[in-house]
Amino acid sequence: MRIVLATRNAKKVPELRAILADAGVSAEVLTLGAFPDAPEVPETEPSFVGNALLKARAIAAHTQLPAVADDSGLSVDELGGMPGVLSARWAGRFGEGDQDRANLDLVLDQLADTPAERRGARFVCAAALVLPDGTEVVAEGVLEGRLLRERRGENGFGYDPVFVPEGETRTTAEMSPEEKNAVSHRGIAFRTLAKELAEML
Amino acid sequence: MRIVLATRNAKKVPELRAILADAGVSAEVLTLGAFPDAPEVPETEPSFVGNALLKARAIAAHTQLPAVADDSGLSVDELGGMPGVLSARWAGRFGEGDQDRANLDLVLDQLADTPAERRGARFVCAAALVLPDGTEVVAEGVLEGRLLRERRGENGFGYDPVFVPEGETRTTAEMSPEEKNAVSHRGIAFRTLAKELAEML
Q1: Membrane-crossing residues (chains A, B) (predicted)?
Q2: Is the distance from CB of B124 to CB of B48 less than 8 angstroms?
C-alpha cells in the first residue's frame, strides 16, 4: 500500500514509516515531493483537527491515494489556549527574518508577569488520514507541560527551548530526537492513527 | 465625599465625575496626582476584575479614601479571548516605540486568514470600588462587535480603529468621544458602579 504524507519535508518520512511498521502496517510513504502539482492548502481552520483534515482531504483528492496530514502547536493556559493553530506565525510581521525566534520571544514577553503556577501549557497534534473513498480517521496527541522564562537546549524547533513536559526537568530542546519522539504529541497522534489504520486493514 | 480614581491620567476625571453626578452621587474626584507616594500596582492578574480590584485595594489602603480602578481590553473570539488583560502590551518587545500601533498590527496579522463570520470580538471593562472599611463593589461593561481588516478613523486609541460595535457601521475611532462614551464598555461599567454606589450611600 502507498500513503502520501502531506508535507514537502522529506525528513518527516522516516518517523512515520517507523511508526507504521511498529503498528504492523506495511506501506510505502511518499511525500508531496512526488506530486509537484499538488495544491497548496492554507491552514485557515480554527482547530488543529480542522486544518489536518483540510490538508488530508485535498491531498487524497489530488493523488487518489490515502493521505496523512497533521497540524500541531502550543496551547498556553494563560493565553486562552493560544498560540494554538497560529503557533508558527504568532508574531505576524514581527517574525520576518526569523519567525521561530520571534514567536518564542513574543510568548515569553506575553507571559512576563505570569508566575510559575500559571505557566501551564501543552503541545497538541492532530493527525488525519483520508482515504480516496472518503473514509476519515483523526487522532490527537497531547504533551502536557509548563513554560520556562528562558531558553534551554539546542534540539527541536519552535517552542521546544522553553517547554518542560510534565514529570521532566529538561526542555524538549534538551532531549534527543528519539527521546522527544517517544513522548511527543506528534508521536502520540501518529501512533494512534497507525493503530486505527492497522485495524481497518 | 471624596473618591480617588486610580489613574495618573487627569483626562479621565471629567467622565467619572459626570457619571457620578448622573447617578446622584455628589463627590470630589481626585487622581493619583494628589498622592505622589501612592504605590505602582502591576496588573498581574489573569482577569480584568482581578486587576481592577488589585489596584483599587492598594489605593484605598494607601489613601484611606474610597478608590475606583478599572482594567479593560479587547477579547477576540478567534484568539481564545485574548489579548484580554494583555491588550496594552500584546506585542511585547515588538511594540517598543509605538505599542498601540504594534499591538493592533499584530492582531490584524494573527487574524489575516480569519473570515468575516469568525471576526467577533468585544471590548470589556471591569471597574472596582473599594472602601477603606473593606467593602468592595465590582461592575463589568461589555461592548460586542467585530474586527475589520484595516484601520478606519482617527479618534479613540488602542484597537478602536478596527472595532465596529454591533448594530454600527462605524469603528469606535470614527465616533466622537461623547458617542463612544455613551455606548462603551467603560461607560457601562462606570455607570453600573455609580448606581451601586448611589444605592449604598
Answers
A1: none
A2: yes
Per annotation, catalytic residue among A70, A71, A105, A109: A71
The helix or strand, by DSSP H or E, that contains position A115, with its residue range, turns out to be none
Q: What residue in B sits closest to A94 (Cα-Cα)?
A: B94
Would you place residue B192 in the very low, low, confident or very high pLDDT band (cuts 50, 70, 90)? Answer: very high
Chain A's closest residue to B76, CA to CA, is A80
The b-or-e profile of B117-143 (16+ CB within 10 A means b, else e) is: ebbbbbbbbbbbbbbeeeeebbbbbeb
The three-state (H, E, C) secondary structure of A50-87, written as one string: HHHHHHHHHHHHHHCCCEEEEEEEEEEHHHCCCEHHHH
Interface predicted TM-score (ipTM) = 0.88
Q: What is the pLDDT of residue A14?
A: 85
Q: Residue A18: what pLDDT?
A: 86
Dist. CA B39–CA B28, nearest whole Å? 21
Please tell me the number of Cα atoms within 13 Å of A199 on its side-chain side.
6
CA distance A56 to A51: 9
* Fold observed for domain A2-200: Maf protein (3.90.950)
pTM: 0.91
For residue A95, the distance in angstroms to the closest alpha carbon of chain B comes to 9
Cross-chain Cβ contact B92/A102 below 8 Å: no
User: Which of these is catalytic: B71, B100, B113, B133?
Assistant: B71
Best CA proximity match to B86, nearest among A95, A44, A165, A90 = A90
Which residues, in sequence order, are CB contacts of A172 under 8 Å at separation 6+? A123, A143, A145, A153, A155, A156, A160, A163, A164, A165, A180, A184
Instruction: Give the residue among B107, B198, B79, B99 at the shortest CA–CA distance from A93.
Output: B107
Q: Which residues of B carry a binding-site annotation for Mg(2+)?
A: 71
Q: Where are the domains of chain B?
A: 2-200
Mean pLDDT for B25-43 is 92
Residues A81, A6, A178, A176: is their CA dihedral positive or negative? negative
